[in-house]
Design goal:
It contains eleven helices and twelve strands. It has a seven-stranded mixed β-sheet with strand order 7-9-6-10-8-11-12, sandwiched between helices. The radius of gyration is 19 Å and the shape is globular. The protein is α+β, with helices and mostly antiparallel strands. The protein has two domains: about 130 residues, 60s Ribosomal Protein L30, Chain: A, CATH 3.30.1330; about 180 residues, PurM-like C-terminal domain (Phosphoribosyl-aminoimidazole Synthetase, Chain A, domain 2).
Length: about 325
C-alpha cells in the first residue's frame, strides 16, 4: 500500500503542474502562482475525526479548523483574503452544534478580516471538513531556500495539538479529568508573526504535522540535517503528558501539530532580526541550526536523540494507540 507521500507523487507524475506556478510538489505550504506584480497563494486542506480535534465544544472546533487552514497562507508569508469550505456534517450533529461550529469559523474570519465566499454542504455518518483559502504576498516563503548554518526559530510553544489528541484518545482516563473541561485549546493564527518574519526568513513551514515531521520536511527540502534543543513545550501539555507517563518529547514527535511557524534565519541576518523583534513586541524561540550532515538530532541535556527513525505516520497503523506505543518505544 502506498503511503501519503508516495500517493501524492504518483498523482503529480500524471497531473503535471505548469503555467506560472512557482513551487514544486512539497516545496511550500501553499501553491504559489505569479499574479501580476504579486503572488497568489492557494491552499486546500481536509480534516476529519482522525485529526483528533476534540468535538465537545463545536465553537472551538470550527474556530480551530479554520485557523489550521489559514495557517498555510501564513507559512508562505501571505495575507489571507478569501475563504471557502466543503462541510459534511455527522448525522449526530443537531442544529445547535452546527450553529456553534459555524460561529467558530465566523469568529476567526471576522477577527482577521477574511471574506467567506461560499462552499458546499453534505451529510454522512462521520463529519469531514475541507477548507480553501486564497491569499496574496509580495514575497513568498517556501520550505526550500535555506542553507547549512541557518538558524531555526519557532513562533510559539509546542504541544497544543498533541494535547488535544491526548484529551481525545484518553478521554476515559480519570487522571485527565481535571484537564478535560478546564483547558480548551484555541489555535493561534500567527498573522503578525508571518508579516514580520518574511523580511528575514530563508524558509518556513507550519507545524501542522508536529514539530518533528516539520523539521524533517524542512531539512529534506534543503538537503541538510538539523540539531535542535531547548524546545518550548506547552505548559499544560507537559503536565498532561507527565500524568500519562509519556515522555515530553512525544509532544514534538507525534503528528497532531499546533500550527506554529517554523522558520530559518541566515546567521548573517540574526542580529538585525533580533533587534527588530525586540521593537515589534513579538516573541520567537530559537531552537537550533541546519547542519551539513543529513542527520536529524535532538539534544536533551547531555544526550543526543537521533530522530531519523521518527518519520512515521499514524495512518500506517490500524490502531492509534499502537502508533503511540511505537513512538514511545523509539524514545527509550
Amino acid at each position: 500500500m502506498l503511503n501519503e507521500k508516495q500517493s501524492i507523487q504518483a498523482i503529480c507524475s500524471i497531473l503535471a503542474k505548469g503555467g506560472t506556478q512557482l513551487n514544486k510538489p512539497f516545496e511550500a505550504d501553499c501553491e504559489i502562482i505569479e499574479w501580476g506584480d504579486k503572488f497568489l497563494l492557494f491552499t486546500i486542506d481536509g480534516f476529519s475525526a482522525e485529526d483528533k480535534f476534540r468535538e465537545n465544544d463545536p465553537f472551538i472546533l470550527g474556530y480551530n479548523l479554520s485557523v489550521a487552514a489559514i495557517s498555510d497562507v501564513l507559512a508562505c508569508g501571505g495575507k489571507p483574503l478569501y475563504y471557502s469550505h466543503s462541510l459534511v456534517i455527522s448525522k449526530e450533529w443537531d442544529e445547535k452544534f452546527l450553529n456553534e461550529f459555524t460561529k467558530g469559523i465566523k469568529h476567526s474570519l471576522q477577527k482577521f478580516k477574511i471574506n467567506f465566499i461560499g462552499g458546499d454542504f453534505g451529510t454522512a455518518e462521520q463529519w469531514s471538513y475541507t477548507a480553501v483559502v486564497l491569499g496574496e504576498t509580495d514575497k513568498p516563503l517556501m520550505r526550500s531556500g535555506a542553507s547549512e548554518g541557518d538558524l531555526l526559530y519557532l513562533s510559539g510553544s509546542i504541544g497544543a495539538g498533541n494535547f488535544e489528541a491526548m484529551m481525545n484518545i484518553y478521554s476515559d482516563n480519570k487522571l485527565l479529568a481535571p484537564f478535560l473541561n478546564t483547558y480548551k485549546i484555541k489555535l493561534i493564527p500567527r498573522l503578525a508573526e508571518s508579516a514580520f518574519i518574511k523580511k528575514y526568513a530563508s524558509s518556513c513551514i507550519d507545524t501542522s504535522d508536529g514539530l518533528c515531521h516539520s523539521l524533517i520536511h524542512l531539512a529534506n527540502c534543503n538537503q541538510t540535517g538539523f540539531l535542535v534543543e531547548n524546545i518550548p513545550y506547552h505548559n499544560i501539555a507537559q503536565k498532561a503528558a507527565k500524568l500519562l507517563r509519556k515522555p515530553v518529547e512525544m509532544l514534538m514527535i507525534a503528528e497532531c501539530g499546533e500550527y506554529e511557524l517554523l522558520f530559518t534565519v541566515p546567521k548573517k541576518n540574526e542580529a538585525e532580526f533580533l533587534a527588530d523583534t525586540e521593537k515589534s513586541f513579538l516573541k520567537f524561540y530559537k531552537i537550533g541550526v541546519l547542519t551539513k550532515d543529513q542527520n536529524f538530532l535532538l539534544k536533551k541535556e547531555k544526550n543526543i536523540l537521533d530522530l531519523n527513525h521518527f518519520d512515521i505516520s499514524a495512518r500506517d497503523f490500524n490502531n492509534v494507540k499502537d502508533y503511540i506505543n511505537t513512538l514511545q518505544n523509539l524514545l527509550k
